[in-house]
Write the structure tokens for this entry.
Amino acid sequence: MRWGLVGASTIAAEQMIGAFRSLPGSEVTWVVSGQPAHAADFAGRHGIPSSTTSLDEMLADPAVDAVYISSTNEKHRSQALAAIAAGKHVLCEKPLAMTVAEAREMVASAEAAGLVFGTNHHLRNAATHLAMRDLVAGGRIGRVLSARVHHAVFLPPHLQGWRINDAEAGGGVIPDITVHDADTIRFLLGEDPQEVVALSGQSGMGQGVEDSVMSVWSLPSGAMVTAHESFTHHFAETAVEIHGTEGSIYARGVMTQRPVGKVELVTAEGRKPVPVTPHNLYDRAVRLFAEAVQGHGRPSADGWDGVASLAVALAVREAARRGARTQVDYGA
Ligand code: NDP
């Protein structure tokens, strides 16, 4: 499979080029960037044969099967629609777009064209999250009563660009991290959040966009979720807890790009570690996407998963802005 990169980004450099190359027979053949010097430099550093500032030039190459979009968030919609119009499969970064309507348009267009659309929600590919999902789905903790997601981290200096000061590019911790937590809860519990309340603020990093948010979500089953996302917590460890009538799951250090973290199950029988065999999260996401392109299975997170995670995140932002309970508007 041949990939064209749209966006000469950090995530492409740090994770995704390696993930594409981890698949036998898979190549990265193009990179598209808004700045010619950056495009050429990025291509040179990563051994990518062709670079351009013209998305159309790359899309005109019939040898490109799929594009990976990792530009800033406000560009995702137009780039995805152009790729779909050119008949390319799309793996798009989260958040899919700036609004739910835009995200739905992107995913529906791919569906109408018979193309695979994936959302790069890496966390649901982690061995830890897969193990937690299996415990919940297998009834090991009974009926789920509540969950807690602690995803307050310190945004490293090299990522402190548009994320902390550019609302128009999709900055802020809600589009950046709350979308991941929404996807994680939907994946772990198999339910779509219905209603949210939230408080957001700036705690030392955000300039015109929120850098911290705490929210509470209701689920159709009656279970409740608390979520905390931040860019400013130097020493906090990430965590997920899921509490049920027959047991609790405690996962620490699992809201990360790396294949690390520990999961424990507490039931009437006591506290036990849950064995997991770690693997690279992004390699798995790319493998499942490529298999879906070949007609087998589906991406680990498809386009509609990306629509849903964005809908929850935007409801959290709206709830914080209004100071009121807010329905999640999935747009359908
Ligand atoms: P970056 O800030 O690294 O890159 C975004 C854009 O900024 C690039 O596409 C590029 O524009 C421009 N840019 C970056 N570096 C330079 C440079 N040195 N000179 C000129 N232009 C530059 O973004 P991230 O990698 O942090 O994020 C990109 C997307 O990926 C976002 O949507 C984000 O939400 C998502 N993301 C997802 C992660 C995940 O694990 N799923 C993790 C991190 C990010 P151009 O497009 O014109 O090349």
Observations:
- The mean pLDDT is 98.
- The chain has ten helices and 15 strands.
- The longest helix spans residues 303-322.
- The chain has two domains: 2-121, 123-282+310-327.
